[in-house]
Amino acid sequence: MNHLGLVIRREYLTKVRNRAFIIMTILSPLILIALFAVVAYLSQLNNNKKRTISVLDETSMVREALQSTDNLTYVFLENMELEEAKTLVRTNENYGLLHIRAHDSIAQIAQGIKFYSEDSPSLTLITEIESKLERLLTDLRLQQEGVALNKLKSSRTRIDIGQESFAGEKTSKIDNVIKLAFGGFAGYLLFMFIIIYGNMIMRSVIEEKTSRIIEVIVSSVKPLQLLMGKIIGTSLAGITQFVVWVILGGVFMFIITAIFGIDMGGMQNQQQELVQQALEAPEAQMQVQTIISSIYNLPLTNLMLAFILFFIGGYLLYSSLYAAIGAAVDNETDTQQFLMPILIPLILAVYVGVFTVIEDPHGTISTVFSFIPFTSPVVMLMRIPFGVPVWQQILSLGLLFATFMFTVWFASKIYKVGILMYGKKASYKELFKWLKY
Amino acid sequence: MHDLLVTDSVSKNFGDFTALNKVSIRVPEGSIFGLLGPNGAGKTTLIRIINQITMPDEGSVTLDNEPLADHHIRDIGYLPEERGLYKSMKVGEQALYLAQLKGLSKSEARKRLKTWFERLEIGDWWNKKIMELSKGMAQKIQFVVTVLHEPKLLIFDEPFSGFDPINANLIKEEILKLREAGATVIFSTHRMESVEELCDDIALLNKANKILEGSLQDIKRRYKTNTYEVGLVTSDEQRLKSLLRERFDIFPAEFKSLNDDLKLNIKLDFNETSNDLLSFLTNHAEVNHFNELVPTANDIFIQTVKNN
After folding, report:
1. Which of these, B137, B139, B2, B142, lies nearest to B64 by C-alpha position?
2. Dihedral pair phi/psi, residue A30, rounded to 5°
């Protein structure tokens, strides 16, 4: 008799109607958005703070390099001793005092620059001042050595090697970065999904044991169907939650921005300016075009299809491992010893993906790992943008789903024996023995 | 009579441990069959094999002359000793789910549930969650769920544990009604008084082996010792005792009576009958009490297990 549909329905409905689940579904995006809002608000406060820095410049050379801005004012002190200047800065409650000691050689000047302040100063500020002074002093030194600055600047040359395959397909470094980003994103998403919903599946498998309904259930449903139903039902609930998160996240973001007038983009304002400036430059426009065209050049249909299939396959495989753990134990406290080994192959997959696929997408290691079911969802997805023959993809998928079926079968076997072994704690040794019953 | 369930030399081992050793039982159709035995005798393993929760290593099980198969799930109703319900599910929803797993359609299940809930006066529980119910209340639901799909074979493992006497009685009546309606019941328990009351046939398991099987009546007949419990009035008790001793084995007896009688248990030779004893007694004394001592299921249980 086929009860799979019934089991899936029950699992899904009980999960989705569960009060804790509903609360988490609504609250999580709210908390996350609230957190972002607070961070955005605080950093805005920080950015708007006006700072004054006094400069005691004994060389009178740096004035033009240090221009005041909206939030940062430079005050230049004249004819003053260092100690005097320090007291003054303190009484005026300035942010700090920049002291540039006079010297004959520029190299010596460079070494004698100091910043005095009450607390240790902000890192970005110091870096900013450093780079300004560095540029100024370098230019001055070059001039002293008799180098014509305008000639130096005009003779600077940029190189960007054009790449083209024998078939005439144009590629670039940006191409590779995009391909890797795609694989990385897929791997990350899979990782998140497994961690969030794997435990849920495990708990759902233990549920029958803690509520002691297990014998009634297994006398009506085959354990294989029960576990399969639990995995699919819980996964559907997970997908529902995820979709709600994405939608609610968007809605909350919109509402908060509208009500509180906090500019969520505020943090990126400066970056946006930078990007805009960069976009106006002609070479940057070229780059944007390459990015767009390289996205178009990716085997998009293949990628989407592969992404969906490998994601589902990988997720199912790992959740069936969680189900197997649930099958082996009587209650949640006994699961610890089994949990750790599950994530190791996944982490390995990400490492293999990042370190070997970049170097050699079709090398032996990449190819082998893109067939091993526990690593293939990540590694194969990283390889596909670089072009993988269809037969390899199909073979890898076949292996993945076959392994999933096997683990569920394995889990149901453990489950069955586990019922008979009431109260006996499952250890790896015990599990191995059970397989022979 | 036709046997509904037959197990033939069923064996089951867990590693080195033998749970069942070539156990054969026959459960006649329409009977209440007591599956008895001390803890760890293998009763639950046998029941699980009948429910196809686990497979036997050797031997076969047939239901209605067919080897056990998947579709028999809907012919069996099983109330295990370790029982529970999904705690966070509502009563009605849960009962519907379990009934559908047994092959009932949703509408049919709903109709039958309404009838049962009314009969047991639990209709207003439909929307309650299991965790709001007491243990006894939950057990009633479990009972209803077990019998709802009207299976040919019902298996109850310690059905009365956890019930108060009133509800236990209610369930007992329901079990008898189900038998009237044609169901066959396997009944596994330690409580011998309910065996006396309910069972037509019994099988006794001990240490993985079946050591006794048959109709309860036959077994009792086999185990009876031809002993009678009598209460006598006589002027000379010593003389009467010595007279009796010449012909029978006599033992002092204890039972309640209104009179200050001489109370004795008298064991007859197997070729003598109650009439022989009675006519002997009436010649020598006034007989106030005369009762054949029939072994109780409890006696038989303890005696057989000890001798085994």
Report:
1. B2
2. -60, -50
CA distance A17 to chain B (A): 10
pLDDT at A270 over 70: no
B52 contacts on A by Cβ (under 8 Å):
219
Q: How many residues does chain B have?
A: 308
Helix then strand then coil, in percent of chain B rounded to 5, is: 40, 30, 30
| Contact call for A211 and B98, based on CB within 8 A | no
Residues paired with residue B79 on neighbouring β-strands, in sequence order: B156
- How many other CB atoms are found less than 10 A from the CB of residue B111? 12
CB proximity list for B110: less than 8 A, separation 6 or greater: B96
Whether A238 has a pLDDT exceeding 80, the answer reads yes
Closest CA to B156 of B34, B56, B20: B34
Q: How far is B191 from chain A (nearest CA, A)?
A: 22
**Domains in chain B: boundaries:** 3-221, 225-292
Tell me the C-alpha distance between B31 and A139, whole Å: 108
Enter the pTM of the model.
0.76
Say if A4 is an interface residue toward chain B (CB within 8 Å): no
Alpha carbon A371 to chain centroid, angstroms: 25
- Asked whether the beta carbons of A219 and B50 are under 8 A apart, the reply is no
Distance from the Cα of B161 to chain A's closest Cα (Å) equals: 15
CATH of domain B3-221: 3.40.50.300
- pLDDT tens per residue across span B124-155: 888 988 888 888 888 889 999 999 999 999 99
Please measure the distance between the N-terminal and C-terminal CA atoms of chain A and give it in whole angstroms.
25
Q: Are strands B32-36 and B184-188 parallel, antiparallel or unpaired?
A: parallel
Q: What is the DSSP string of B116-183?
A: HHHHTT-GGGTTSBGGGS-HHHHHHHHHHHHHTT--SEEEEESTTTT--HHHHHHHHHHHHHHHHTT-
pLDDT above 80: residue A283:
no
Q: Is B105 on the interface with A (CB under 8 A)?
A: no
pLDDT tens across A160-209, in order? 777 777 766 666 667 777 777 777 788 788 888 888 888 889 988 888 88
Give the SS3 label for residue A295.
helix
Closest by Cα among A68, A67, A70 to A48 = A70
Check pLDDT > 90 for residue B300: no
Looking at residue A79, what is its pLDDT?
80
Cβ contact A216–B83 (<8 Å) = yes
Question: Which phi and psi angles does A219 have, rounded to 5°?
Answer: -85, -5
Mean pLDDT for A263-267 is: 48
Q: Check residue B98 and give its pLDDT.
A: 93
Over residues B235-257, mean pLDDT: 85
**Of the candidates A1, A207, A416, which has its C-beta nearest B103's C-beta?**
A1
Q: What is the ipTM of this complex?
A: 0.80
Across the beta sheet with B153-157, the strand order is B76-79, B153-157, B184-188, B32-36, B201-206, B209-215
Enumerate the H helices of chain B as residue ranges: 43-50, 91-101, 106-119, 135-147, 165-180, 192-198, 216-223, 237-247, 274-284, 297-307
* All structural domains of chain A: 50-148 (3.40.190.10), 170-435 (no CATH)
Tokens standing for residue A357: 């696929």
Which residues does chain A have within 8 Å of residue B96's beta carbon, measured at their own beta carbons?
none
Q: Using one digit for the tens of pLDDT, what is the confidence trace for A298-315?
A: 677 788 888 889 999 999
Give the C-alpha separation, A83 to B17, whole Å. 92
Segment B69-89 shows an average pLDDT of 89
How far apart CA B270 and CA B227 sit, in angstroms, is 10
Facing residues of B12 across strands?
Answer: B20
Taking a C-beta distance cutoff of 8 angstroms, is the pair A384, A362 a contact?
Answer: no
SS in 3 state form for A142-187?
HHHCCCCHHHHHHCCCCCCCCEECCCCCEECHHHHHHHHHHHHHHH
Judged against a pLDDT cut of 50, whether residue A264 lies above it is answered with no
For residue A92, the one-letter residue type is N
